[in-house]
Inverse folding.
């Protein structure tokens, strides 16, 4: 008997999503192009999933009663790097919780499970501005003095968030993209969901 037989691997929602995505996007078909995407989207809608987020390179789906979101993304090396960082830094409260592993669909198309988070409150704009300034100050040594106040403000309330920004500033191939759409909340804890452009 194999471990996956004991854990019910083939009966989990993720396995059905992954199998359908592989069937539709294999053979060089591009994510979000034509019939492959429509067939995949019809399948997941039929199985109780709704799209709760959409971007240029990704869609996010949820199913009522299932505690995790599915994110299907393609051609996004910045998010792929961030996801891998999150997997090994689950102790930092400012990264999304992930379940399972990275599931390659085809080419540069992947499916992952991430925690459901709450939107940033409408009053969170000033916090995001301060966070963005802190990130810029940590990336550019010449700008540190200009943004030191923002760095200290964030560090005094969320020291692990500054640690996260310091770690991410080492990813020199990507540019920070911190705005209200990619900062969400777990209770009172801000979480960076997709901090790179």
């Amino acid at each position: 008997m194999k471990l996956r037989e004991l854990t019910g691997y083939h009966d989990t929602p993720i396995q059905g999503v992954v199998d359908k995505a592989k069937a539709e996007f294999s053979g060089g078909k591009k994510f979000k192009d034509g019939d492959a995407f429509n067939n995949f989207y019809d399948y997941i809608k039929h199985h109780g999933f709704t799209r709760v987020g959409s971007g240029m390179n990704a869609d996010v789906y949820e199913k009522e009663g299932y505690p995790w979101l599915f994110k299907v993304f393609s051609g996004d090396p910045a998010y792929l790097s961030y996801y891998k960082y999150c997997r090994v830094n689950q102790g930092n409260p400012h990264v999304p919780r992930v379940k399972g592993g990275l599931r390659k669909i085809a080419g540069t198309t992947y499916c992952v499970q991430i925690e459901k988070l709450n939107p940033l409150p409408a009053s969170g704009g000033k916090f995001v501005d301060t966070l963005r300034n802190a990130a810029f100050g940590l990336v550019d040594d010449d700008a540190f003095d200009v943004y030191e106040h923002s760095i200290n403000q964030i560090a005094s309330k969320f020291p692990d968030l500054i640690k996260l920004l310091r770690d991410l500033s080492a990813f020199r191939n990507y540019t920070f993209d911190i705005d209200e759409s990619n900062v969400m909340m777990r209770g009172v804890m801000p979480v960076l969901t997709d901090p790179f452009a």
Confidence is low (pLDDT under 50) at residues 1-10.
